[in-house]
Design brief:
The chain contains eleven helices and twelve strands. The chain is elongated and about 70 Å long. Bound molecules: S-adenosyl-L-homocysteine.
Length: 349
């Protein structure tokens, strides 16, 4: 395992094996996870011989920034990072009144195949390591010079398809010896891998689970999301209730509105019917068109009507703040095909 994915206990064992004094692990951990050092050279209070040995044997996970785009509309920034193996991933930084939020990727590509999403077009390339998830937040913190207080795992990838690394990432991110982000300020978004969602509930973390529902019944959901062939809406809602019962945390349902497909009054009525009585919150996301896909965005009047119909049924509902289509940072627009953008930025395109 790479050194930045280790817990402080694991690091302690490692340092003991190296014949290092007891305090060494804490020192090193703090350099990596609090002071966000980019190299062992920076860790000046560590013996030079140790630094050289670690640099040779245990490289730090420090992605290089390929490009940063800032939205002219609201200052949201999209970052592209190159990983050690050359793969490029994307992260988004948003400033809210309650603090700064980072949306991170959990995989290179994705194999879930949602029909309206750009991230899945090239399939899954590989899982991200815990350190590679952390390093997106660390690099952005260094770049902005501002603390990140909220983390949403809603970028490229299906986080519950990379379950063990996700959990380790959450443990490291919320560790009081590290950045110490509050569990309450972390949201994990899933397309609905039911057994994994139940397993996550059993971890009894205080994180929010967001479920990408997008349709009120199996037939329509199967048209949009292949995962719906494996798990029914009923099974998903039961897992959601289990999550709330086990963790005490309210579920967020994401519902991306597609013109003429899932945004009709009949869909709103059906959705209200299946969610009635659940302790939940619905987040409506007018779909961001992806050029390889045929789906269009709902008309504003239909979005508002959909919202109103849910509200009238006593369901807690918000419309997702319109994010940055000018920098292609909005949901479902994160993609690995970054060359075109870099080309365009550099005036070569
Ligand atoms: N795999 C996870 C997290 C990544 S997607 C999941 O499915 O939840 C984050 C959210 O953006 C999901 O709700 C996803 O369905 C939604 N989304 C994907 N493509 C979109 C698009 N083109 N427009 C609007 N929302 C989209």
């Amino acid at each position: 395992m790479d050194i930045m994915s280790m817990t402080i206990e694991e690091l302690s064992e490692q340092m003991a094996a190296e014949g290092q004094p007891k305090f060494r692990a804490k020192q090193l951990y703090e350099w990596m996870h609090v002071r966000l050092a980019e190299s062992y050279d920076a860790m000046t209070d560590l013996p030079k011989t140790l630094r050289e040995k670690l640099a040779a044997e245990r490289p730090l996970t420090v992605p290089s920034k390929v490009v940063m785009m800032e939205s002219g509309e609201d200052g949201t920034r999209k970052y592209l990072f190159r990983l050690a193996d050359g793969n490029v991933i994307e992260s988004v930084w948003m400033r809210y009144h309650h603090g700064n939020s980072v949306c991170i990727s959990s995989q290179v590509g994705c194999r879930m195949g949602c029909k309206f999403c750009a991230s899945t077009i090239g399939g899954l390339v590989r899982n991200l390591e815990p350190s590679e998830m952390l390093s997106q937040i660390y690099a952005i913190t260094r770049d902005t010079g501002e603390r990140v207080s909220n983390v949403v795992v809603m970028g490229t990838g299906e986080p519950l398809d990379n379950y063990d690394n996700l959990l380790r990432f959450i443990r490291l991110l919320t560790d009081e010896n590290g950045l110490n982000v509050s569990q309450r300020n972390i949201t994990v978004s899933t397309c609905g891998l039911v057994p994994k969602l139940r397993a996550l509930a059993d971890e009894k973390l205080a994180i929010t689970a967001a479920i990408s529902l997008h349709a009120p019944n199996d037939a329509l959901r199967r048209e949009l999301m292949p995962v719906a062939n494996s798990f029914s809406v009923k099974e998903l809602l039961e897992a959601a209730e289990y999550y709330t019962r086990t963790t005490g945390r309210r579920i967020t349902y994401e519902y991306s509105l597609i013109d003429g497909v899932n945004d009709t009054p009949a869909c709103a009525r059906e959705l209200a019917g299946i969610l009635r009585g659940q302790n939940c919150h619905v987040n409506l996301i007018p779909i961001n068109p992806v050029k390889e896909r045929r789906y269009g965005r709902s008309l504003v009047t239909n979005v508002l009507q959909f919202q109103k119909m849910l509200e009238n049924e006593g369901i807690n509902v918000t419309i997702r703040r319109e994010l940055d289509s000018d920098i292609d940072a909005a949901c479902g627009q994160l993609r690995r095909h970054y060359e075109a953008q870099i080309g365009a930025e550099g005036g070569e395109g």
